[in-house]
Write a structure and sequence with these properties.
With 186 residues, the protein is an alpha/beta fold. It has a single domain, classed as Nucleoside phosphorylase domain (Rossmann fold, 3-Layer(aba) Sandwich), CATH 3.40.50.1580. Helix 1 runs parallel beside helix 2. The two termini are 16 Å apart.
Length: 186
Amino acid sequence: MLTDLTKKNTLIAVAMEEELSLEQADGWNVIYTGIGKVNALISVNRALKEFKPDNLINFGTAGSSRSDLKGLHEVTTFKQRDMDLRSLGLPLGVTLNDHINDICLDRPGLSCGTGDSFVTANQELKTDLYDMEAYALAKLCLIEKIKFYCFKYISDEANENASSDWNENVSKGGEAFQKYLESLSG
């Protein structure tokens, strides 16, 4: 439950300071993971040993090919969009010999496809949003039995203009997430 989130028992994982400054997350435990699934896992795994949080929040920007989505949204379904073993007879997004594939939290929210590429064109694996870290962190939290929350600010439309749109909008997400954090404290 979101009311369980406190500054003391929660770690916030963000890929880059451009997405959320320490001032915007005043008093919260924040780590910057770097971009991508591998960097996120290494950084958060180290931080779990130091902070021992009950909750992990992944905040960052995401692209969406849905024109009706804008602003800050909670994400509760996670898919691995760049796992492609179709040549072995598996569906896109499914890992061989892995019992954890799609991750669905028990509350309403959007879906996100995570992969190690910045999305600038239509994706075969359809989700509401596209990012580069959330699936890996959701899976780590599932395995380590840490409550996982994910909030993404839609920075671009995951199209040919995504790079310039992201550059223009990246800092706006931190402002929106700061207001959310203040509502938890308030």
